[in-house]
Design brief:
With 196 residues, the protein is mainly α. It has one domain: Fumarate Reductase Cytochrome B subunit. It has 5 helices and 2 strands, in the order H-H-H-E-E-H-H. Strands 1-2 form a two-stranded antiparallel sheet. The protein starts with 9 loop residues before the first helix and ends with a helix.
């Protein structure tokens, strides 16, 4: 494992922000697919390969994260916020893995190929069965809502750290290192509060 750092490395940041854009795009595409039957076929052709790309990226990201140390949270962060941060990250990773796998299984259960590009298809991972398809479709819908909720909580927490606490947490994953380093932010808080 690498030594502790005050920022995630460039590869982790690139994965984070590219996945954030793709997840947001997937959520919008999913809503558009439900609301527009005209656009549905073309949106499906976009939705499926992006979903598989996200599955690959989340696996790469998990492996990368397990091999490297992450920047520590501020020492003065309340315990419940530490637990919430840890829990929300687990939920995000679980949902990012589950959503494309359930989508892949759902398409398989519908008897359709998962078209990646042109003639490149993925093999089915569930039997062709309308009952299984129905269960998977419901699960995909509810998990998409859960992913949106956790995604929005994650954004809210990032803005809280960036604008309210100003403790350097946002800086650890920011595309460019704006704001104070975590240590500098802590010292600034101590100075403003009159701490020695």
């Amino acid at each position: 494992m690498s030594a502790p750092t005050d920022r995630h490395d460039a590869f982790a940041r690139a994965l984070h922000w590219s996945m954030a854009v793709l997840i947001l795009a997937m959520l919008f595409v999913g809503v558009a697919m439900v609301s527009s039957m005209t656009l549905r076929p073309s949106l499906l052709m976009l939705h499926r390969p992006i979903g598989i790309a996200l599955l690959v990226l989340v696996i790469v990201r998990l492996v990368h994260r397990l091999r490297r140390r992450t920047p520590p949270l501020p020492a003065d962060l309340p315990g419940w916020q530490r637990a919430a941060a840890h829990g929300s990250h687990i939920a995000l990773y679980a949902l990012m893995c589950a959503m494309p796998l359930i989508g892949w299984a759902m398409v398989s259960a519908a008897g359709n190929p998962v078209v990646i590009w042109g003639d490149l298809h993925l093999p089915p991972i569930a039997p062709h069965d309308p009952a299984i398809y129905s269960v998977l479709r419901a699960a995909h819908t509810w998990l998409a809502r859960a992913l949106l909720a956790v995604f929005l909580l994650h954004v809210a927490a990032a803005l809280y750290h960036a604008w309210v606490r100003r403790d350097g947490v946002y800086r650890t994953m920011a595309p460019v290192p704006l704001g104070p380093r975590p240590h500098d932010a802590h010292e600034s808080t101590r100075t403003e509060s009159g701490a020695p």
